[in-house]
Design brief:
The structure is a homodimer.
Chain A (H helix, E strand, L loop, with lengths): L6 H16 L3 H18 L6 H16 L6 H21 L5 H14 L19 H11 L3 E2 L1 H9 L3 E5 L5 H12 L5 E7 L9 H6 L8 E6 L12 H9 L2 E5 L1 H10 L6 E7 L3 H4 L9 E5 L1
Parallel strand pairs in A: 1-7, 2-3, 2-5, 3-4, 5-6
Antiparallel strand pairs in A: 6-7
Helix pairs in contact in A: 1-2, 1-3, 2-3, 4-8, 5-6, 5-8
């Protein structure tokens, strides 16, 4: 999906949310805003994904603030909380089998997509302690479009699956789903970001929650881009997108990229995410924030 | 009040809301966004009121779109609806007297402050038909800070009052309050905008709802600025601000300007409005949108 009119204010709002949490000196804050507005004046268009613009304004933030990993402590707490929730979910899944178990874990992996600083409560200002209850509520909401059965059949027919992750914390629930995928497929490749941006999980985060214990391989998706990037993806990701039988992608930013990239790959693409805004929800006939398990 | 960090995204969001409703050609839309971002890159700071920046991006919109009066039809409908609601409110106030009647009309004038394209439902996308019910709900909410009694005493001691209006539609309820003020004071001067911006009422709007029937005089507050402007107010407004015993100002943008201008005037300033955002509500110890009748 390419940027729409509404994305113009959302990009600025995302940057403002991040700045609000970082409490930088007013002069630094203003310099970041100045450069971000200048970048948007030169580059904002409807011919790139929203994630491209968000990536760029957050890079301006990192460069000018000289903070290489914004929200470091928050990111770590999210991973720890994710692991605790995953333990509980694992227990709850104990007596489930086949499609029922698969669907249960897919739904939890989607509920965990809410673990995004941008969209939880007041933007970046989340209380990590509330997360457990909040994710249970998301799980209880169910899926507005539920193609888990179709996805289950596709998984069983796909010897190689590429799994593209989204947020810190959420990856602990992805780990449970990947463990399940491995019962039905030979190879699952986990793709993670090379650098931090908002709450997106990096290779390092993947290792922290132990994704390497369940995935066949962890690969670098590219640098610090919001979701995978059409312009900056790594050769490794590009090659895997071409050679995989199925892609499972988490999060809205990965949906942006893959809905544009779909015609270039042979494998099926399943997107598991909770939408963040009306422009995306309306594509699926919804409003507000909705949970989706869809095959593109 | 001067602009805060959060205002950066709100300014863009307000412009996007207006663009969304106008459905311009994509090229025109992008040109407006480009120029607005460029203006904000050059000028956004924490040393001017938020309304200055909103005024400027809306002027960019009007100039590039070549639409001199955006939302013309919507503005007219708002005035018509305001007049109908005012008739009903007038009937309901029939048996009230003194402070009780004054408070009732103040509260309705504040409830009517919700008649702002920027903040009603999905930004500019209001359904005029819903307005009546919505305003009743706002009235029922009551005031978070209620200094109507203090304002009533000040009114009785002030031979000359300057009334600074805010939105179309809302001015029909202001008319009822001014009629009431005239029972306790000799002169009420109504100040209105010289040109259209978002939903702010112009001199022409004032005449349409018959403000001249109750006010001693209608004056031009300045050109097409969001609320009154510290930089662009008319000589007439500046003079009246200096010579009046009391100022009654409607709306958040007029609060921005008058809270900065307060030290320069001798008269008391009462602000009657419904807040639009947390940065302003938090000044008064609230959150979300709250109704206020305060003496600055």
């Amino acid at each position: 999906m390419l940027a729409k009119l509404e994305c113009a204010s959302c990009i600025v709002d995302d940057l403002v949310g991040a700045l609000k949490l970082l409490s930088l000196k007013k002069e630094v804050e203003k310099e970041i805003l100045r450069e971000a507005f200048s970048f948007l004046a030169d580059e904002f268009s409807y011919s790139k994904t929203p994630s491209y613009f968000i990536t760029m304004v957050h890079r301006i933030l990192k460069r000018i603030s000289k903070i290489p990993v914004p929200f470091k402590e928050r990111r770590e707490k999210c991973n720890e909380t994710g692991l605790k929730i995953a333990e509980r979910v694992y227990e709850e899944a104990k007596d489930l089998k086949d499609l029922e178990r698969f669907s249960f874990l897919v739904k939890w992996a989607i509920a965990a997509n809410e673990l995004d600083f941008r969209t939880v409560g007041t933007g970046y200002d989340l209380e990590v302690e509330r997360i457990g209850n909040m994710l249970s509520e998301r799980f209880e909401e169910g899926l507005m479009i539920d193609q888990t059965e179709k996805i289950f059949q596709l998984v069983k027919k796909s010897p190689k699956i590429l799994y593209i992750h989204d947020n810190v914390g959420e990856i602990a629930l992805d780990k449970l789903l990947i463990e399940e995928l491995k019962k039905y497929t030979d190879v699952v490749i986990s793709a993670l970001r090379g650098g931090p941006i908002t709450s997106d999980a990096t290779l390092e985060d993947g290792k922290k929650v132990g994704l390497q214990e369940v995935s066949s391989q962890l690969i670098l998706a590219g640098p610090d881009t919001l979701g995978i990037s059409l312009e900056e993806m790594s050769d490794e990701l590009e090659e895997n997108l071409q050679t995989t039988d199925m892609i499972i992608a988490k999060g809205q930013a990965n949906y942006y990229a893959l809905s544009e990239y779909k015609s270039k790959v042979k494998g099926k693409i399943a997107c598991l995410f909770r939408t963040k805004c009306n422009p995306v929800s309306s594509i699926f006939g919804g409003r507000g924030k909705i949970n989706l398990a869809v095959v593109l």
